[in-house]
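Final report, closing paragraph on structural work. Over the funding period we assembled a curated collection of sequence-structure pairs, and we close with a single example.
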Amino acid sequence: MDATEKLRLVEGFALEKGVLKPNRKLFIVKPEDVRKIFESLVEKTGYEGFYLSTITGTDLKDENKVSLDYYIVLLPEEETIVIRTYLPRENPVVESIIDIVPGALAGECETYDLLGVLFRGNPFLKRGFFTPTELAEKNVYPLRKDSGV
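Its predicted structure, as stored:
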């Protein structure tokens, strides 16, 4: 499967498409489709057809949502694409992908500890891993814009 076919696979889930600098294709998807995308990539390309580079989360306080970006490198073309989804800020929950892509562990744990996004099905989530203990004990998420940190 070449890059064009991989992009078509991801495009099938996209609500919107765009471009991020530097020339990275962006696909905005429903939260429930994130896991389906990774399942499809593994099924169609195998584990050698892509890798998950990172997961980033952004608090969009004024919009009352959290943005999650999954940076995926398509191989062997080395083209980076971004899968983005939005979660409600008051209950940011998405299905974990660590059973499909074990490399997602660090990104899921960091985003949970610093921003409060719950990755349902990830048994390794805990507070105080990236966040100082005194903040975790007060249930403060440092990357939340109203955290006071």
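The chain has one domain: 3-137. The domain at 3-137 is CATH 3.30.460.80 (Beta Polymerase; domain 2). We thank the funder for supporting this effort.
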